[in-house]
Each structure stands twice: as structure tokens, then as C-alpha cells.
Amino acid sequence: MRAVRNKADYEVLCDEIWHHNRCYFQEAAPEISDEAFDALVLLLEKTEREHPEWISPTSPTQRVGERPLEGFAEVVHAEPMLSLEKAFTQEELEAFYDRVCRIVDRKKVDFFGELKMDGLALCVTYEHGQLVRAVTRGDGEVGSDITQNIKTIRDIPLRISSEIKLLEVRGEVFLPKAHFDRMNAERKGLGLPLWANPRNAAAGSLKLLDSRELARRGGLSCVFYGISRQDPVKVHYQHELFSYLQLLGLPTYLSMKELPMTPLRTVSSVDDMMRFQDEIRAIREKLPFAIDGVVFKLDNLDESATIPPTMKHPRTAIAWKFGAEQAWTRLQEIVVQVGRTGVVTPVAELEPVELSGSTVARATLHNAEEIERKDIRPGDRVLIEKGGDVIPKVVESDKHAAHRQPQWRMPKECPACGTPLIKDEEEVAWRCPNHQHCSEQIIRGLTHFVGKDGLDIENIGEKLIRHLYAKGYVKAPHDLFSVSKDMLLTIEGIKEKSAENILKGLEAAKKPALDAFLLALGIRFVGAGGAKRIAEAAETIEGFTQLTKEQLLGVEGIGEEVATSVEHALADTAFLHELQLLRDAGVAPLPRSKREGVEGHPFNTATIVLTGTLSSMSRTEAAKRIEACGGSVTDSVSKRTSYVVVGDEPGSKFEKAQKLGVKTLNEQEFLQLLG
């Protein structure tokens, strides 16, 4: 083994490893074997153990932090990370093109077309060649410092040319489709909720406070496509940018050897733009990562820098969004599933079909009235649609088959407990009223309690809940905190280490945020927004148990429906007994104080209701973004509601908003206000 005699030898070794790292990850042209590379890394690790005073912050060993973070610090962006204006029609693209021509006072302008990655935007800063900071987009003005986590992504170099005094690059962290499928397969095996799409999985990974766990998961990649600050100035045109970043060893589309075509092009007209998006749409499913459109940027960066942005968007760039994808397949069977509130929902069991980069075998049918209205029957060929975070849905069926099965009817009894189903005249949903003893409602309620919309307990999902329930170990939420290692080891597939991780997750969940705890309890009509508002009003769990209906109605964003439901829960002896048992088990929700809003934002202090399906994001993400601006999301419409955001296939809330004269926003209007 070669000797490392002094710090100069140590720095040469670091440079050598970085060189081979770049050959492997950026150029796909390794110069040495994996064994030889591993030997160099072992030598470096040995040297740093013997001489810790030599360790550089950009050493190849410093990708993973020594201990978990306590939280992510907030960082103000030197240059705001604005969102892009979106175009869905050729007319909107033409209006954008003409507007830029007027601004620069020319009849023809060159734009540069590239992919619109469906990942997590970030900004990475290098000073004197060293990576010093990585920050998420956040609200565009302030983001989260995720430097320690970004260092675990192997294709992001920790150092570049030291001649670069300052380089701030913009890019996207993403999870390749193949790794996303593997992650979901693992989660399915553990009975954990599946990630909706690669973007959510990437975001969930980057939120891990322990970078060692992130490094263990692996799979994240990055692509850079913009420069917000540079000293010295080297790039003057967007079409030059990718070659320059590639030269520095930063990952770009040019680094991706497996792409079916180079997804970059200069375009000089709207016709060029439309041809480019058509070509990208044609190869979309062949790409190893998810995209949701293409982006067009003014090619002349110097000229672009002289044009001030609006409060929300740069004036010189636009995103062309692809619509929802569709596919035809066979509807094999219609089954019904019982939710935690007793609602019985029909679900389509499908002949598996590839759609938006994943295999779809189930799709929602919403309710019995929807099935009757669309005349969907088992055995039909059906059109499936999936866009963004949307759960796959059945759009229509082929009604021209020679022999169709009889119309489907909702069963009269609960498939789980046999109790006759009931239907409220004011609702479209059928329900099982056996809340106390219906096994499926209990299991779904427990799954909600531990899930992402509840206490978000690691390593516990529906599969484990079903095992614990079947063995009689867990019948109510408080029972979870009495589960022992011996109990867990009786379950097939649970080993010593898994059992310890589950128990650690349960122990960590004993101090949840008050709003998360209230949401986990599953009180009817209380969604994430309502839980936050109630938690802010109550401040403590003791304060919550003492709330009156009048006090609840006095909370901004809490309407009659939610207030009545909470009042009924607090009058229910079984509910209060479960609260006491949870407290006896050591569950102590943390107090919550009222949050501050974003001054001047149109959603600050606004009360907003979401109805229907959004194509650009999930309703959970929309609620989080509204709340980050200072607004509140509630579940019921009243005269005090500021806006009702109307997505695809809205429910009765839309009709109520129209009756009360509450302002409604379609998705595009919502996104424009949200910024």
C-alpha cells in the first residue's frame, strides 16, 4: 500500500479520488477498477483516522454527516428562486413569445428549450471551488439548508475548479424511475404507504434529518440547468451553460448517456417550440426519470438579466406543461373497500397497464352514482387517467362491446362486518355505521393514526397493523405503545433489528406536534388545516379537551360542521377514555402557538377550502403551501371562507361556494396567486 507521509500527499490522494469519482459518475468512463477505487478510499479513511487534523471539508469522506441534524436552518436566497409561468395551450405560448419580443423590441427572439424535471428545486453555492451551501427553493425567498444531505448525492462534486470565486447553480434533485420502483416494492413488502411518485419520494428522502439514513437509501441524482450568480462571468447564453457546467464536473443532461436524444435545443419561433415539446412528449416514457413538461428560456442571459421579473415569475421563461396521461385497459372487477370513517368506496381492479412511468392495477371509481352516470361495468375496456400526484381514475368505458355484463350495484352489507350499509340523503357515499366493531374501520383508523397524515411513525404501515390486529395485540391507538419486542418477533418477517426500529419509532412518536396528534385521532371533518387551527386555538391537549362549540366557531376557518363534529367527540366518553389511555401510555403532544404569515401575500390570513383534484400537486401539498404563506385550509365552506379552490370533479363544496357567493379559483388562478 502506498504511503501518505504528509498533508501534501493527503491532498493529492483526495484529488485522485475526486478525479476517478468524476470519471465514473459524470463521464461514464472509469479509468480504474472498482477494487482499485475502493482501495484508494480505504487508504484515505485510514489516513484521516491517523491524522484528523488534515481532514478537509471537501474530502471524499465528508459526504455523510457524523450525527443527525436537529432541524433544517432557514436561508434567505441571494437571488429569489421564482416559479415559472405555465402554458397549457399554443395560444398561451404565442402570447408569451410576443410579449418577450415587445420587451426586447425585436420581431424574432431565440429561446432555449430543455426538460422540465419533476423533482425538487435547489440552489447550490460554490466559493473558491468548494461546496459551501445547498438550499431548497422553499417559498422562493427563504429555503431550508440541506447542505449535509446534498453531500450524500454522489454525482454532486464537493469541489470544482478553485479559480471559480463564486458559482451559484440552480438545479433539481430527482429519483430515477427504477430506484423509485425498488423503494416502493420495499415499502409494499413492509406494509408502508407507497410514495405517490418519484418527486414525493425524493422530497421525503431529502427531509431526513439523519444524512446517514439518506446515504443508506441512496438513489438520488441531480441535474443542474441554471446559474444565478457567477464570478468571474463565464456564461452569456443558455445554450453555452450546459457545456460549461459539464466541464466543471457538475451533472447536467449532457452527463446522461442513456437518454434517447439530447433534450436541449435552440428554438426561434412558436412552431419550433411546439415541435420540440412534441418530440419530448414522444420520448417521455423512455426517459429514466419523470418530467412534467418542457421549459423555454430566453437564450441571451445578459439580456434576460436586464428584464426585471414580476413578483411571481421571470418574464423571460415559461414552462409548457404536459396534460394528464391516459391508457386503455380491461376492468376485471369492481370491489369495495371500507375507510376509517365507514365510507364504502368502489375500486376498479384492472388488467395492469403502464401509465406515467408506473404500473397501474387499481383505480378509484369515486362512488356508486359516478359508476352509474358513466355506465362502467366489470369486463369493460376502460380509459385510465393519471396526472401529477393524482390517484389513477377511470375516465370512461368502451360501451360498444357486443356482450357487456349487467350494471354494477353497491352491495347492501359491509364486506368486512356484514352490517347493513346506510346512505344519507345529502351525501353520495354509502357507509357502514358499525364504527366500534367493524374490523376494517378499526384497522384503517389505526393505519391513519400511524401514517403520514397522522403521527408519521417510521417502519409501521398497514401490513404490520393488520398483523398486530389479527393477533389481538392492538385494538385501539393506545395499544400500540404497549407492543413489546416479543410480540413483534411472533410476526412473520419481523427480525430483531426490525423490531428494535419499530419500537424506536413508537417511542419517538410519544411527543407529536399537537396538530398532528389531533389529525391522527381521525375526528370526522377535521382535516390538516382544521387540526392546525384548532391546535393554535387550544395550544395544549388540555386546552383542546376544554373547548366549547362556541369557542370553536370563533376560530377563523372553523365552520359549523367541524365545530359540531369536535363537540360530539369531546362529549363521547369512549373518545375521552382513549385520550386518557394515550396519555397514560406516555403520549404527550407538544404545545402549539399561532404562526405568523407572509406579509403582503394574497393568502396571508385567508381561509381557503380545496375541492376536487389538482393536476399540479396533491391537496396535501397545496395545503402546506397555503399555510406557508399564512393562510389556513379548512374542510367546510362558510360565508367567512376567502376562496374555494376548484379542481377536477369538485364536490358539493363548489356548489355551496356558489350559493354563498364565495370567490372560487380554478387551478391556474390558484397557482398564479400562490406564486
List the helices and strands and how they pair.
Elements: H1 7-25, H2 34-50, E1 74-76, E2 85-87, H3 90-104, E3 111-117, E4 120-127, E5 130-136, E6 142-144, H4 147-150, E7 166-174, H5 177-190, H6 198-206, H7 211-217, E8 221-231, H8 238-247, E9 265-267, H9 270-283, E10 291-298, H10 301-305, E11 317-321, E12 325-338, E13 343-355, E14 358-364, H11 368-374, E15 381-386, E16 393-397, E17 422-423, E18 430-431, H12 439-450, H13 462-470, H14 485-489, H15 496-508, H16 514-520, H17 528-538, H18 541-545, H19 549-553, H20 560-570, H21 573-584, E19 607-611, H22 619-628, E20 632-634, E21 643-646, H23 652-660, E22 663-666, H24 667-674
Parallel strand pairs: 2-11, 19-20, 19-21, 21-22
Antiparallel strand pairs: 1-6, 3-9, 3-10, 4-5, 4-7, 7-8, 10-11, 12-13, 12-15, 13-14, 13-18, 15-16, 17-18
What does this structure look like?
With 675 residues, this protein is of the alpha+beta class. The protein folds into five domains: 7-63, Helix hairpin bin (Helix Hairpins, Orthogonal Bundle), CATH 1.10.287; 76-321, D-amino Acid Aminotransferase, Chain A, domain 1 (2-Layer Sandwich); 325-402, OB fold (Dihydrolipoamide Acetyltransferase, E2P) (Beta Barrel); 439-584, 5' to 3' exonuclease, C-terminal subdomain (DNA polymerase, domain 1, Orthogonal Bundle), CATH 1.10.150.20; 607-674, Rossmann fold. Residues 64-70 have low confidence and may be disordered. The protein is built from 24 helices and 22 strands. The radius of gyration is 27 Å and the shape is globular.
